[in-house]
Amino acid sequence: MQIACVGGGPAGLYLSILMKRRDPAHEVTVYERAPAGSTYGWGVTYWGGLLDRLEQGDPETARAVRERSVRWNEGVAHIHGSTTSHHGDEGFGIGRHTLLTVLAERAAALGVRLEHRRTVTDRAELDGADLVVACDGVHSALRTPHAEHFGTAVTGGRNRYVWLGTTKVFDAFTFAFVPTEHGWIWCYGYRYDTDRSTCVVECSPDTWTGLGLDRAAPAEGLALLERLFAHVLDGHPLSCRPDGGRGGARWLTFGTVTNHRWHHGNLVLAGDAAHTTHYSIGAGTTLALEDAIALADALDAPLPLEAALSRYGRQRRSALLPVQSAARYSARWYEELPRYTALPPEEMFALLGQRHSPLLPYLPPRLYHRLDRAADRLEALRRLKRRVGPLLARSLHPRTPTPPTA
């Protein structure tokens, strides 16, 4: 099979690895518009279960990712002058550039052809390919002309956010909530290397404009954020680029991408071209890699290509439902932050950990917290919570019927 992966992110690179491992006779090419070795972003997060899945797919990749990752098992929240911590599941961070380097080197070693500085905007440019995988991001050029067929929808979020880096090394996954005269602003900080961390800053539109971040020069905006979060940065600077640059920070609103169908002929979607989930749940890279695993499994089955792609789409859409629900409620929790800031710090942090719950937005926060603590002690309440939550989620967010041909 001749396979063309358009987009050199985790989905395309890992799919190329899996397909070459399963059959070295496959001719696999990855097309990436950026130069070799360049990438945007800072660090990405994942959990231990991903390493197990990578181990099954390609032990060498799993080993390299594990060796290059950093770990934490504690969360810390700073609010109202207090610091609250919680010991939780082990999480991992790895630099996006490091991850892509690991994947690209492994793919090349297996015989995958990597073409950098190559922009593909039309699958007709890849006329000889048996399969074209569109893993070219949120604004996928290959998906866009067929948006009606795919049933593409983009739902915009309300809050503004900016993705930054810092030399402050966070020992735990760190949240800091800061009140200003224009409303709350907060950051998420986590390390992804021995000497680097990601720092995502978020606030409401009114706070963004009230603080003047909508019109501040890049260096001026960074200086303001450094002052606001001085208590967690410990004198370390924020930067907009991995080289330490302070220019070019882009404040964004998050767009949730969904598609009713995931393939059109021999064109199939993967990664952010197929779906996005709010960054506050830290699942984007994991989901892209899981897309690659599911697509490789479907292509490995003794099925015609159309049936294999249909199976892949059905399986992944079904698997994404709980993740997409969690992401919706997580984004909503931050959009409704003032609802929780009057709570004692330890209660607010507890509800931060419960932000994926479909029940939380519809109960008074203090009542939810008391019920949640009671549920932890009584098995009958635990069972009721597990049962009622998903039912409420389905009733409040009814599932749109999915065409059977996807």
Provide structural commentary.
The chain is an alpha/beta fold and 406 residues long. The protein is 39% helix and 23% strand. The protein contains 13 helices and 16 strands. It has helices at 10-22, 48-57, 59-68, 96-109, 147-150, 205-210, 218-228, 230-233, 284-300, 305-335, 345-353, 365-377, 379-396; strands spanning 2-6, 27-32, 43-47, 70-79, 82-95, 113-116, 131-134, 153-156, 160-166, 173-180, 183-191, 197-203, 238-239, 255-258, 263-264, 267-269. The strands form three sheets. Strands 3-5-4-10-11-12-9-13 form an eight-stranded mixed β-sheet. Strands 6-2-1-7-16-15 form a six-stranded mixed β-sheet. Helix 2 (48-57) runs parallel beside helix 9 (284-300) and helix 12 (365-377) crosses helix 13. The longest helix is centred in the last third of the chain and has 31 residues, at 305-335. It starts with a strand and ends in a 10-residue tail after the last helix.
